[in-house]
């Protein structure tokens, strides 16, 4: 493996500012006697100190009774600096996206784009499509209502004014299994568990697919109905408004629920008069239908009449292409996907991988090829269990040492810099830079240094990525915690990452760090799920 630079080392001035601006004490003084590290032979000096400190952090109360797979490796020398339960298969949560994204770059390539076309059975030279108009997708997760408006304008611009048949939505690039087999059915209304289709709509600039923005504003006076709205709305969606406006000082209780198997959205509860509007994301049922109805409305607005119905269907073998839309390349899509931990993107990529490699846009084909791709990178996949690409399922199982191997072997790939910079960067406020680490490790040696993928589910939390030490040494690390008793141990994960950022092989220098309690007090979010999934970051 050829080590290559990952990031510039922290400057002496930066380390000095950290030492002066943050109240710090030695790790040993904060966490007591060092526990015996799980790494191999005892090593004297700075590495032994590092191992003792990490072991002591893993002995924190937050991890009482938990299993923690942890590895730390030098990318410069290949040396394993620390290992604990690294060969134990654990639930990775969104660390599964490390495998999905790497496989996508390997199979599809950084320049891969998704094509969406509008086709007709024959050239409508006279402005009339004799038969059906076909909207055909290949999984583009960046199709917004604005894109559908532009496609409709192009169709009208080509001279088409009438379609004598139906508007067909062709999503057969993927299969019709919409939800992961092992996903919790109670998650289905929430945007992090949206239905997967080869033809779907992104509701916002984060490219959250298969969802709508559900909003409501209070009425002018108490007792009046609220003003609900779904955006982007199509004729396939229905609102049932049972919510009211409460007294000005009342508590907001408004909620939105979609009845399973339908696109009926019920607004219940109340909003205080004069108070703030309500906004959330909710999934749609059958995202292909939603895309088709949005496109039909856009065509109507452009003066194109559809004489028949709006429905799903397959394109005939021979068609005349009217217009085409091409997505951003995969290397750009990785940014919202990885920074914001977008589950829909992960599952779309799995099915796209399956279609590219095996001609089958299914979870089964895609996940098999993800494993094959990881093997091709030189990573042994013994004990690997993948049931989705996002990590939403609790039946995924990944070893920390497999993640370590992937992080290491990826450095030799031509797409490595694209992949690494798609990871959240600690302490960076910009959501498309810091992502799920935007609020973490600020004011430490890890800020603007640690590139790492987060992961959080009930009982499972992870942080894996890259860090540059105080000496400029490049490290890869993986921390996967399962079965902890309380809130996700992000404070412990951050403390380990900061300790790695401070690590030096100069045995005359003792790194500085803060206690896990101080880190925990800085966390703006302590729930079970990824902070982007709950709108908390």
Give an account of the 3D structure:
It comes from Nocardiopsis ansamitocini. Residues 1-40 form the signal peptide. Belongs to the peptidase S13 family. Keywords: Carboxypeptidase, Hydrolase, Protease, Signal. This is D-alanyl-D-alanine carboxypeptidase DacC. The chain is α/β, with parallel strands linked by helices and 537 residues long. It folds into three domains: 12-110 and 331-522, DD-peptidase/beta-lactamase superfamily (Beta-lactamase), CATH 3.40.710; 115-177 and 287-328, D-tyrosyl-trna(Tyr) Deacylase, Chain: A (3-Layer(bba) Sandwich), CATH 3.50.80.20; 211-283, no CATH class. The chain is 28% helix and 20% strand. The chain has 14 helices and 21 strands. The chain has helices at 12-21, 27-31, 46-58, 96-107, 145-157, 287-301, 330-339, 343-358, 363-376, 400-409, 416-421, 431-434, 490-502, 516-522; strands spanning 67-74, 80-84, 115-120, 128-129, 133-136, 162-163, 167-170, 211-217, 227-231, 238-241, 244-246, 255-258, 264-268, 270-272, 278-283, 305-306, 310-312, 320-326, 451-457, 460-468, 474-482. The strands form six sheets. The protein has a five-stranded antiparallel β-sheet with strand order 2-1-21-20-19, with helices on both faces. It has a five-stranded mixed β-sheet with strand order 17-7-5-3-18, with helices on one face. A hairpin with a 5-residue loop joins strand 12 (255-258) and strand 13. Helix 4 (96-107) runs parallel beside helix 8 and helix 8 crosses helix 9 (363-376). The two termini are 36 Å apart. The relative contact order is 0.18. The model is unreliable at 1-42 (pLDDT under 50).
């Amino acid at each position: 493996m050829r080590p290559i630079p990952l990031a510039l080392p922290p400057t002496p001035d930066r380390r000095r500012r950290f030492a002066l601006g943050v109240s710090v004490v030695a790790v040993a003084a904060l966490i007591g006697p060092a526990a015996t590290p799980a790494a191999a032979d005892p090593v004297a000096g700075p590495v032994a100190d590092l191992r003792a400190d990490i072991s002591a952090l893993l002995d924190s109360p937050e991890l009482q009774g938990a299993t923690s797979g942890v590895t730390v490796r030098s990318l410069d020398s290949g040396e394993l600096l620390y290992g604990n339960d690294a060969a134990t298969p654990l639930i990775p949560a969104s660390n599964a996206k490390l495998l999905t994204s790497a496989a996508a770059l390997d199979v599809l390539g950084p320049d891969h784009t998704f094509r969406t076309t509008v086709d007709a059975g024959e050239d409508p030279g006279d402005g009339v499509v004799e038969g059906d108009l076909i909207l055909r997708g290949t999984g583009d997760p960046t199709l917004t209502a604005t894109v559908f408006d532009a496609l409709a304008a192009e169709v009208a611009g080509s001279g088409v004014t009438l379609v004598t048949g139906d508007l067909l939505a062709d999503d057969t690039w993927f299969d019709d299994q919409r939800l992961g087999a092992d996903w919790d059915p109670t998650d289905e209304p929430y945007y992090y568990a949206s239905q997967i289709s080869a033809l779907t709509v992104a509701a916002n600039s984060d490219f959250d697919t298969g969802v709508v923005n559900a909003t409501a504003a209070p009425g002018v006076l108490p007792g009046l109905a609220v003003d609900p709205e779904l955006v982007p709305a199509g004729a396939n969606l229905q609102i049932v408004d049972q919510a009211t406006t409460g007294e000005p000082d009342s508590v907001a209780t408004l909620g939105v629920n979609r009845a399973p198997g339908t696109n009926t959205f019920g607004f219940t509860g109340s909003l205080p008069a004069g108070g703030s509007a309500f906004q959330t994301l909710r999934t749609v049922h059958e995202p292909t239908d939603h895309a088709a109805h949005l496109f039909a409305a856009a065509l109507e607005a452009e003066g194109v009449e559809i004489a028949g119905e709006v429905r799903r269907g397959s394109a005939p073998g021979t068609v005349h292409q009217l217009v085409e839309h091409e997505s951003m390349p995969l290397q750009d899509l990785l940014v919202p996907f990885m920074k914001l931990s977008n589950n829909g993107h992960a599952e779309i990529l799995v099915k796209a991988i399956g279609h590219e490699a095996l001609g089958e846009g299914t979870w089964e084909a895609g996940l098999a090829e993800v494993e094959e791709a990881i093997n091709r990178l030189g990573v042994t996949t013994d004990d690997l269990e993948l049931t989705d690409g996002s990590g939403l399922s609790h039946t995924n199982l990944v070893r920390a040492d497999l993640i370590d191997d992937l992080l290491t072997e990826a450095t030799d790939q031509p797409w490595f810099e694209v992949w690494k910079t798609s990871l959240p960067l600690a302490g960076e406020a910009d959501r498309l830079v810091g992502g799920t680490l935007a609020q973490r490790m600020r004011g430490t040696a890890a800020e603007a240094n640690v590139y790492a993928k987060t992961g959080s589910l009930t009982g499972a939390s992870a942080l894996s990525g890259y860090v540059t030490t105080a000496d400029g040494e490049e490290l890869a690390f993986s921390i996967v915690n399962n079965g902890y008793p309380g809130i996700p141990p992000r404070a412990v994960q951050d403390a380990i990452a900061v300790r790695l950022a401070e690590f030096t092989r100069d045995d005359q220098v003792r790194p500085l760090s803060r206690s896990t309690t101080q880190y925990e007090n800085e966390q703006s979010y302590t729930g079970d799920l990824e902070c982007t999934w709950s709108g908390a970051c």
